[in-house]
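Lecture notes, unit on protein representations.

Consider one protein chain, 108 amino acids long.
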Amino acid sequence: MKRGLTRLCYGFFSTLANPTRLAIIELLEERPMSVTALVKALGEEQSMVSHNLRPLIRCHFVTRERKGKSNVYSLNCATMNPIIKAVEAHAKNFCGNGTNCYLHQGES
């Protein structure tokens, strides 16, 4: 067993396997945004958004650029677009557009 690959994949997918982080990624797909704009769009507390941006930045799924007094966050499209397309294609071809892949309450 390739333990290095296991750890790598676990870290990679664990970073993405969070509803708030995925919502951030989905919003940043549309356009770069500040924390203030993300907070407003998500309806979450600023601390929650900032907490979830950290691992996305650490893994370089999202980039941060200083603009004046604020930070603007952008999606790393070179990495994330192929991943998003692969997930969408898999869901369409094998998961009934995702309905077969959703965990239902009580399932694991």
